[in-house]
Design goal:
Number of domains: 2
Distance between the termini: 23 Å
Strand content: 15-25%
Helix content: 25-40%
Number of strands: 18
CATH architecture of the largest domain: 3-Layer(aba) Sandwich
Number of helices: 13
């Protein structure tokens, strides 16, 4: 295989994330030379549509001028100052904007990444229970097929053995809630249901639970699985009645991805903690935050000698460059009514998937909400029954100008929220062409 100089240098030193590096012998890394909007320019394969928002974070595409300018303006002032006992106009402005988007909350705690944000929320929950008369509450639960990050604690909260199995010896036990009511079709079209009976198995643990952690409505890395929002309502009622915290991991789903500020809005519930990242800075820089209430905050508020303070910290907490990106992103979402556009156009993307499914006969379980649509390849069909069919599509899609990256044999679109309908349609056409080629192979 002919490799460019950059590819040779890359493979000599760079250990890529989430990859079996042996695969790179036949599919070397793509050399990105520029990116704008929903398009990537490569040195090897020309222009590609970034239909996955570069691991789901580029919510406004690449090179967004408003965010670039905000970051440049902040660079002229300062790039980072310790946040402990300092403040600045930018970080307070960001707090106010996050609360304005989520008015049921009162306090904002910043962290560095999605995984870190989930850890913060879980630690807050545990410490609150322990120092507010609920010492027996030391356990957490999460959902089957969950994914909450790559630290030891968040891997334990997850249910994706592909990522967690090598580290099982280090992970605390976290019970999983089974019988999650998964759905197909459009989540927006669902009617309210009563799922309280599904929570009966939780009663065994109700006295020892500190909190339950969920990805609301959509489980991303677990397979782009959607479940009924009414299940969240049932969980909120169950936890509230028993003094158990509900923690919402809105890292993927929050800030517009599903057409709302929070996916939990589909169930009209407010968890005790909500964690945001990805769309928060529109993928310009790493940042996350945990939103919670004055009730939780007051459980830590005391004299220093009491030992009740929340002592979690990160070097780059509240980083000014990230804050500048986040403020500009939120301003743009609001000014351009991006959430409303997502809610309006989500049906179009869903229909594109339905059309591909109908035309090819090769997609099962078409499902969507907001600007996420997914379906499963029918690997029982000749041509799709090969080993790692999704990976085969991924490699071929790149050659046709589409960064697709299926999850196993699940294909999905998760584009920037300002992607044009023309690019969505072009992406669907490429996917359909690829599937037909596989069926003929």
């Amino acid at each position: 295989m002919n490799l460019s100089d950059l590819q040779k240098r890359d493979l000599k030193h760079l250990w890529h994330p989430c990859a079996q590096m042996k695969d790179y012998e036949s599919f070397p890394p793509m050399e990105i030379v520029s990116a704008k909007g929903s398009l990537l320019q490569t040195a090897n394969d020309g222009e590609m549509i970034d239909i996955i928002s570069s691991w789901w974070c580029k919510s406004l595409g690449h090179g967004h001028e408003d965010i670039q300018q905000s970051v440049k303006n902040q660079m002229d002032k300062f790039e980072h100052v310790i946040l402990a006992n300092t403040s600045n106009e930018l970080i307070v402005n960001l707090c106010e904007k996050m609360i304005a988007l989520n008015p049921a909350y009162d306090k904002v705690f910043f962290a560095d990444s999605g995984s870190d944000g989930v850890e913060v929320a879980v630690k807050m929950s545990l410490q609150y229970q322990q120092q507010n008369g609920q010492e027996q509450r030391k356990k957490f639960m999460s959902l089957q097929n969950a994914y909450h990050g790559e630290t030891i604690l968040t891997l334990a909260l997850g249910d994706c053995g592909l990522y967690s199995a090598p580290y099982a010896a280090l992970m605390p036990e976290v019970k999983k809630i089974l019988d999650v009511p998964y759905v197909t079709g459009r989540v927006e079209d669902l009617e309210e249901e009563d799922f309280s009976e599904l929570l009966k198995p939780l009663e065994e643990y109700e006295d020892e639970l500190a909190g339950i952690v969920i990805e609301p409505v959509l489980q991303g890395a677990g397979g782009m699985l959607f479940y009924h929002p009414s299940f969240i309502k049932a969980l909120r009622e169950w936890t509230s009645e028993r003094g158990v915290h509900l923690i919402a991991d809105e890292i993927l789903t929050g800030i517009g991805r599903l057409g709302k500020a929070r996916a939990c809005e589909f169930a009209n519930v407010v968890p005790d903690f909500s964690v945001f990242s990805k769309s928060m800075t529109a993928g310009f820089t790493p940042m996350s935050c945990v939103l919670t209430t004055n009730e939780i905050f007051d459980g830590f508020y005391d004299e220093y000698e009491s030992g009740r303070a929340f002592m979690h910290s990160n070097t780059y907490t509240g980083n000014a460059i990230s804050a500048a990106a986040a403020v500009a992103a939120i301003d743009y979402y609001e000014r351009e009514q991006v959430f409303a556009r997502v809610a309006k156009d989500s049906a179009y993307m869903h229909q594109l998937f339905e059309d591909v499914a109908k035309d090819t006969g090769a997609l099962l379980n078409v499902r969507s909400c907001g600007f996420v649509a997914a379906a499963d390849l029918d690997v029982s069909l000749k041509g799709l029954d090969k080993k790692r069919c999704g990976y085969s599509l991924y490699k071929k899609a790149v050659k046709k100008g589409l960064l697709l990256r299926p999850l196993g044999d699940t294909v999905y679109f998760l584009p920037p929220l300002n992607t044009s309908n023309e690019l969505l349609a072009k992406s669907a056409d490429i996917m359909k062409e690829l599937i037909f080629e596989e069926l003929r192979s």
